[in-house]
Write a structure and sequence with these properties.
about 220 residues, two-stranded parallel ribbon, alpha/beta, Rossmann fold, binds pyrazine-2-carboxylic acid, 10 strands, six-stranded parallel beta sheet, 4 helices, binds zinc ion
Length: about 220
């Protein structure tokens, strides 16, 4: 595979939701989720520009099954903005589960974006809440900073990484998903669906080993 050479001024590494609750022992653990941490650390050292996201829900968030009497996690409900999957309580603001994985070397990140803070609206994408109306401002920030390529890593590939990649493409960024720096939840075929949707939106799936820098 041909290398993809980082162009330091225009490339942003976006690291999605590498938080304790999405790793082994967490409340919404992604299988093998913690395994991406060393891969993501190596990537962060390669890029000049890194942004992180944190899923950051208030207690009792409407995406939690516990907020809907008689509904189990991983089932669907109708929300005012459409169908929503219900999740176990996770990434509650200020809890240890919401903290970034302790092995993640976050020192070079220039932005930590917290999403899913509205008690009534979930936000898988780092760009846009699930009502598909409320912007987080990330696209405008990245554009203003002069970035036009985005490289995505993190958890979960089939939810927050996928939705972020679709919105990055939609916003006009050249978008790469670094698959071995991601892991998925795979809820009812969601991994297969993610691969189709990534192809459909124009994102390129790559492996971390293809990313190189000409000056190192
Ligand atoms: C996520 C489900 C619920 C994710 C966040 O980070 O992929 N998935 N909240
Ligand atoms: Zn969440």
């Amino acid at each position: 595979m041909t290398p993809i050479t980082i162009e330091p001024g225009r490339d942003l590494l976006l690291v999605v939701d590498v938080q304790n609750d999405f790793c082994e022992g967490g409340r919404l653990a992604v299988p093998d989720g913690g395994a991406i941490v060393p891969v993501v650390n190596r990537l962060m050292a390669l890029f000049d520009h890194v942004a992180l996201t944190q899923d950051w829900h208030p207690p009792g968030h409407r995406s939690f099954a516990s907020a809907h009497a008689g509904h189990a996690p991983f089932t669907q409900v109708a929300m005012p903005y459409g169908e929503q999957t219900l999740w176990p309580d996770h990434c509650v603001q200020g809890t240890d589960g919401a903290a970034l994985h302790p092995g993640l070397e976050t020192g070079r990140a220039e932005l930590v974006l917290r999403k899913g803070r509205d008690p009534l609206i979930d936000s898988y994408s780092a760009f846009m809440e699930n009502d598909r109306r409320t912007s987080t401002g990330l696209g405008a920030w990245a554009r203003e900073r002069g970035f036009d390529r985005m490289f995505l890593a993190g958890l979960a590939l089939d939810y927050c990484v996928l939705w972020s990649a679709e919105d990055a493409c939609e916003a006009g960024f050249e978008t790469y998903v670094i698959e071995d720096a991601c892991r998925g939840l795979d809820v009812e075929g969601s991994m297969a669906r993610a691969k189709h949707r990534l192809a459909a939106c124009g994102a390129t799936r790559i492996s971390a080993g293809r990313i190189a820098r000409s000056d190192r």
